[in-house]
Mitochondrial h+ transporting atp synthase f1 complex alpha subunit 1
Amino acid sequence: RRFVSVRFLYFVASMAFVSSRFANCLVRQLPRGVLRYPKQCTGVSSYLTRKLCTSKRLSAGRGSPGAAEVSSILEERILAQTSTANLDETGRVLSIGDGIARVYGLKNIQAEEMVEFSSGLKGMALNLEPDNVGIVVFGNDKLIKEGDIVKAYGRDRGRPRRTRAMKYTIIVSATASDAAPLQYLAPYSGCAMGEYFRDNGMHALIIYDDLSKQAVAYRQMSLLLRRPPGREAYPGDVFYLHSRLLERAAKMNENFGGGSLTALPVIETQAGDVSAYIPTNVISITDGQIFLETELFYKGIRPAINVGLSVSRVG
């Protein structure tokens, strides 16, 4: 009896050791989100347990396996499992029309979160109502019908693929809400930064968007300073305002580093009048112009370039 009791206690201790290792392996195999979705994962443990059956029976000649051998077999089988539970949140289409889908069932969806329909089309959730979600469809809504399954991505619309252009870009901003002196000085500040790269053997492109607003700011300051107004109430030195800015764009020879600065000024025309004061001044300074016309854009001609008024004086 004493000998049998010792063997029984050893067996109980061995099974407790196996159970603890078995439980630890199960916990490591369960998906991370299983605690957030307990109802959807009730069959995970039973599924993993069924997968633990060995493919071969232990031969009778070997006798009963020891506790360490059983534990190692169980752990190997658990760690070999790669299947995971599908925890995606899904809903169904209630109605579809005019590019808007009403979906029921997406209770945890967030605003501007991406979704995917069973047809493969993508959409974005915009309206979050108590009983349904309003989703805009990115494509032909005729491919979607009532009852289709909608799957939430669990993330927002994201952002375009980064090109890291801001690593070599400088923006000097003087918006319409800024004072006129700041709008007047912003192009010169940007040009000074571009000259730094030019003088150090690098190649820089500077875009002035736009010089019409700078001329208006300069006119405002000149009128407040009681300078004599000229054509269109601009001061007499408005041509010099832009010429001393654009002529600083140049290609340096090898003795001065071989760098370059290319200027691309933007001018806004009123009603397409290219013969206005500021447009004619800038046209006479630059090496050509690309004239974009609004009417061509509305007609579907894009890019809306007026080839008759666009000129190149290079080459």
Q: What stands out?
A: The chain has three domains: 2-51+65-79, 90-156, 165-312.
